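Hey,
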Amino acid sequence: MKHRNWSVGNEVSIHGLEWPSNGPLAILLHANGLCAESWIVVAEKLTERYRVFALDARGHGGSSSPTPPHAYDWQHFVSDTISVCNQILTETGYSDFALVAGSSLGGIIGAAVAADERQLFRRVVMLDPPAFPVERVTQDLEPQKSSIGRNSIADQARSRRSIWPSRDAAAAAYREKPMFKHWHPTAFDAYLRSGFKDRRDGDVELACHPEVEASIFELTGSLNIFERARSVDVPVQLVRALGGYFPAPLFEMLAESFPQCELLSIDGGHLLPVERPDEITALLLS
């Protein structure tokens, strides 16, 4: 595993990880609040077939953290990813990525990049993406709405404790919380390493500040994936987490919006790559 950095514009640097191999390229995009290294269990197994990259989105991990909220309009994540992918292609001499897989936020970004840059990816995998209903489909979903709203989850993020005396102290507090209870232990340890940064006073701090995470949730509507989906002309696998937040009819509507889409489900929580890495690896290698 190698640490990498790419400049995007004049103000933002995107940090990422590379698992080298001789295979075609694959790129992994994480969920809001997580980090590239949270993909570690999946990424290490994918090197059987792929040369794997994983990115820290802006405001996460080792990437730059511009001031919220407007720097976290979702189109910025799309532009950052396009820039980094093109730099990787120039560096490696490859013509495209065989695979992009994204969890939650990352799934939306991966598909939006595929819509904007049609020659960049050969396959898109979206893992329980937060495709909140747009106005034209909301009425069709009544009374089955998402069980979680942008405002409530943003409030939860904003109230999150950001500074801890040590990673061990954070781990002890997190381990039994519902969000982390079913994580693979290797992914949990990776999040403690890269999802926190060291402070000069000896404490540790969340690498994704709660205000950044909250801003991203509140700006969900800044990217309409239902409209972008029509422009994705490569195979898409849309995966719904059966223990996630989003209703089946919403995913059925989204799947119908893509020209080529297979709708799947996995029995796990919303953060599938850290909760069900073996199943996700099998899917990505299939």
